[in-house]
Amino acid sequence: MFEYLPNIIFVVVLFLGLYFFSRNLHRLYRNINLGKQIDVSDNKKQRFINMSKIALGQGKLIKRPISGFLHVVVYVGFIIINIELLEIILDGILGSHRLFSSYMGSFYGYLIGTFEFLAVSVLLAVSVFWIRRNVIKLKRFFGDNMKGWPKNDANIILYFEVVLMVLFITMNATDLKFQEMNSGNLISGYIYGFFSDYSIESLHLIERASWWAHIIGILIFMNYLYFSKHLHILLAFPNTYFAKLNNIGEIDNLNSVTKEVKLMMDPETAFSNDVSESDEIDKFGSSDVMDLNRLQLLNSYSCTECGRCTSVCPANITGKKLSPRKIMMDTRDRIEEVGKNIDLNNGNFIDDGKTLLNDYITKEELWACTSCNACVQECPISIDPLSIILDMRRYLVMEESSAPLELNNMMSNIENNGAPWPYNQMDRLNWKE
Amino acid sequence: MEKNLHVKTMADFAAEGKEPEVLFWVGCAGSFDDRAKKITKAFVKILNSINVDFAVLGTEESCTGDPAKRSGNEFLFQMQAMTNIEVLNSYDVKTIVTTCPHCFNTIKNEYPSLGGKFKVLHHTQFLNNLLKEGRLKIEGGEYKGKKITYHDPCYLGRANNEYNAPRELIKKLELELIEMKRCKSNGLCCGAGGAQMFKDAEKGDKEINIERTEEALETKTSVIAAGCPFCNTMISDGVKAKEKEKDVKVLDIVELIVTAQDL
């Protein structure tokens, strides 16, 4: 009976890891669905191409060659090394040891050798990431709200990766049977020498400890994702799939407004049957996260806080408060707050007197945007901070009438004489004189 | 000597029972702003010189609604859009050319779902097409061999992916193009977009147009070319603030062509 104890413990640990992970995913899905529905069912082929190029192919990251290259190393390493996870899980459940080695022959050595090479590459890349963040202190990793949790989170992720890679190599290095095969121990073969004085028993103990710590570490990391910017490793895929397909210069036309404008321009339609009375009048624009659409909320959960957007924002570059990254982080913080509120109140949101507007994002930030789309262009996973800024401006103008005075003047000029300046429309052709 | 410009309105064409090959959407800046009016005239001079049968809407034209939309006033935008679309459709307009990337973007991308489906071209694209058809010939003139830099308007470049058309024209003018550090899809905004043109900037440590102008001046060229009346104003102001207006000219691509062709 006791001989099966490790198998049982493993299955229980694995089950707990997956159970909590699925709970996290469920909460994520629930929170995103607090947003408004958006039709993204069109052009599946193009969406698939975008996802393949941008998320799977890392196409937009390469634009910044150094960080882009390092990211590809960590990304490829992460994905390929995780193939090993399959063997680890099967070994754990069945109580076998390196199950695949007996089926794969010499190919097994090549496979593990590749993993070891990648593990060391990841270690190197992660070290450079850490140095860029903590020693060189690259500007884009600081500023606006990159203090406290966001700052720690970034480093915790790097430490996690270091620990997992070190455990993986140690596990291989102290595995006598694997070292005796002498195939695939590309890196661990050298580390093995370091353990030459150790007894077989201690080697076995270290090997087992590393093996368990490695798999438990992965399960913890998986459950850490939801609370971290590292969630992007999952959400980058749906995010690039659902991202806007049209020219980025296009801003959607609000259907609710179209209805009203048509009524105004052609009052007769008011009495036609097309307009049913049950049509609720929508709130125009967004003052809180529930007014945003689901894609915008997905965007906020996908953001990796890399700051490429903020580093190219003309307003931010010239010292204004606006930071597109902060817009995304604020949105995520607020939707999380709303989610927790719902959890505490048996599935209902109880008004907490707060909104995304004012309590998180100020008017000053919103009015500093030039709508130049540099942030949208720059985001490596197609996040659109501009759409949130515009939806909040819509709320400010159409619900609160609180645009800056000069903009109100501009708008009344357009209304009265068809130009943003106070010129007479009848003078429109005077330029040719 | 200012030659007389030959400009007909859509109403003129309709009265004659004819249709122009293209509608020139002049835009508010092009109609009213003194600096931008020169760009409008320069473009018309080129069209006149090769007998392009174009029309303008004249007093029937009204703001596309771009600054209202980007300020958040979707109501005003859609009222403007629907009124304009009604006018354009009543004349059965098919092709529109405009010297303003904001009008260009709005009519091209935001009018179709409101019932306004037109082929829309920026003036640099339109002139490029004429070049390819052989109707327009451009050679180096006064500025031949001179160094020039080009500022990508956000609403032509990033928003609509057009980086080549203006550069092709610069090449034809036999000018040496020196790119700024931030160019094409990395281009920095002039500071006027999103209705910023009509308001003071928020508190910061610099004006955006100064940041952009400094970058343009770093190229040590004598001409900063642009393809947008608003960018033109912002960078001209920047050049003035840097007291460089004697050494550096801010010109639209069509103004370069007019000077080169001595129109």
Descriptive report:
The complex is a heterodimer of chains A (433) and B (263). Chain A is built from 21 helices and no strands. With 433 residues, chain A is an all-alpha fold. Chain A has 2 domains: 2-32 and 64-242; 255-415, Fumarate Reductase Iron-sulfur Protein, Chain B, domain 2, CATH 1.10.1060. The longest helix of chain A is centred in the N-terminal third of the chain and has 29 residues, at 106-134. Chain A starts with a helix and ends in a 16-residue tail after the last helix. Chain B has 263 residues and is of the alpha/beta class. Chain B folds into 2 domains: 10-132, Rossmann fold; 137-261, 3-Layer(aba) Sandwich (Rossmann fold). Chain B has 11 helices and 8 strands. Chain B has helices at residues 10-16, 27-32, 34-49, 66-71, 74-90, 101-110, 123-133, 164-172, 208-218, 229-241, 253-261, and strands at residues 22-25, 54-55, 95-98, 119-122, 147-150, 176-177, 223-226, 249-252. In chain B, the strands form 2 sheets. Chain B has a 4-stranded parallel sheet. In chain B, strands 6-5-7-8 form a 4-stranded parallel sheet, with helices on both faces. In chain B, α7 packs across α8 (164-172). Chain B starts with 9 loop residues before the first helix and ends with a helix. The chains are: A mainly alpha (433), B alpha/beta (263). Chains A and B meet through α12, α15, α19, α20 and α21 of A and α2, α3, α4, α5 and α6 of B.
